[in-house]
Fold:
Amino acid sequence: TWKEDGDGLGLPDEDKVNTVTSPLARAWPDMLFKNPDELVAGHIILNDSKASLRPGALTPGCVRANACRKVFWEPKQVKVAIATCGGLCPGLNSIIRGVTNNLWFQYGVREIYGMQAGYNGLADPETFRPIRLTPTVVCDIHMKGGSVLKA
Structure:
């Protein structure tokens, strides 16, 4: 499987598996996209007094998040679920709005759902019905407190 191949970190060879050109790359071909194998250095503290206490799993690094030129799925065929899971988080509605608008306008995704009640909504969507998210639905949620997804 992809987890057994390649770099020993459990990362897929994205140049092989990601074959669909991102809508962002089609719209802005000169945009600077990240390389699929970019990592953020795992331990970046010099003279770390607590190095022996830190878990070793992140030592090789973490995959850098950003837009890539190639993606795995055709975005117009993707269904997206957004879940928020507990704790105080000011600005969460702004994030839900931003993710929804980015998926809609930049990637062309049209099936976006907000999972209510956090993990409960993921585990039992019949009881905690997902909310269909569109730019119209999220247009003013950043002006409301809490989370529109009630988690």
The two ends are 35 Å apart (CA to CA). The chain has five helices and seven strands. The beta strands are 20-21, 39-40, 62-63, 70-71, 79-83, 111-115, 131-132. The helical segments are 14-17, 23-27, 92-107, 119-123, 135-138.
